[in-house]
Amino acid sequence: MARPRIKDVARHAGVSEKTVSNVLNDYVHVSDRTRRVVQEAIDHLGYRINLAGRHLRSGRTGIIALVVPELDVPYFAELARHVVREAEKRSLTVLIHQSGGDRERERAALAGFGSDFVDGVILSPLALAPEDLLAHTGPPPTVLLGELLNEGADHVAIDNERAAREATEHLLALGRRHILTVGGRDDGHVGTAQARTRGFRLALAGAGVAYDPASLLPVAAFHMSDGAEAVRRVLAEGVRPDALLCLNDQLALGALRALHGYGARVPEDVAVIGFDDVEGGRFSVPSLSTVAPDKEAVARVAVDLLLRRIDEATRPDDAVPPSAVCPQDRVVAHRLVLRESTEGEAGGGGRW
Fold it and tell me: Quick check: 20 and 10 in contact, CB under 8 A?
């Protein structure tokens, strides 16, 4: 049986081929009734878009790459799911690549992995340096997530400084004054950890609480084991905080385990808050308060920005307005999600 074509769908629905094309391309100026009739015809005939032909005509592969440091980190796994969903809505395929936070792998991603089989790249960098981005002047188009290296590429993130400030202000409002920041970095570099540390310091200053550099607990990586190790280390030294600001949920979950091992009650003795709102934090005991980025919005904005850049890259030079080449820095929403790890009463100096 021959594969159904657009003209077959149009005949079955009683509309023009152009109308079918408008529905397939999700044009807004199509009535709900017409859209429904065309979709019913598509479903009845089993019509499928000929992506290979579409991409051949457009000079594109229909493939974009998503490059993240580690797929077994829940935040990146959840983000990847949202990116795939957003790409599918636009008939795109996503190639997911794990960089391991390695600079050479991230540079290879910028270069499209040395081939032309991807139309564009969404990259969440850890090791990439500003000069790497400045040296990237050719294809494929790239959108950065998280780390803001400079103004050389489109960028999507939450306001990390503001989010950390709000999380710290919540801890301060609970009466907590000895707050440690697990994963905090105050080294002058540009990155997510540094931005969140600045937010922590701004909240302390706003409350008139002195900042102590020793309140930053460095970690080798942002895994549960690193959070547990950092907290165990400081507790073994006799330090007794009344709150922990953890720069991601993995660190916070590790911190909860370390506190439990020392007999600390959460939140009575120590309030704990994280970042990312990953699924594991909703089921920990106690459940984890966290900063929740709008991961769906991050994915949607990143895919939209990338598609715009891909469109610009395939136009003649004189068809691209000068304003289009300016990099975009998009900030998406976040919110505090307050759960059991900060919402109980302070213990007042019990067995802690």
Answer: yes
Q: Which two tokens stand for residue 251?
A: 């660190």
Nearest to 275 by CA among 162, 111, 132, 144: 162
Other beta carbons less than 10 A from residue 91's beta carbon = 14
State whether residue 148 is helix, strand or coil.
coil
- Count Cβ atoms within 10 A of the Cβ of residue 115 and give its class: 0-12 exposed, 13-18 middle, 19 or more buried: exposed
For strands 334-337 and 289-293, give the pairing: antiparallel
Nearest one of 234, 334, 254 to 290, comparing CA atoms = 334
Rounded to 5°, the CA angle 282-283-284 comes to 100
Residues 281-303: tens digit of each pLDDT: 999 999 999 999 999 999 999 99
pTM score, two decimals?
Answer: 0.80
Distance of CA 287 to the CA centre of its chain: 22
Q: What is the pLDDT of residues 69-91, one digit of tens each?
A: 999 999 999 999 999 999 999 88
Q: Which DSSP string corresponds to 205-225?
A: HHTTPPP-GGGEE--SSSSHH
Q: How confident is the model at residue 54 (pLDDT cuts 50, 70, 90)?
A: low
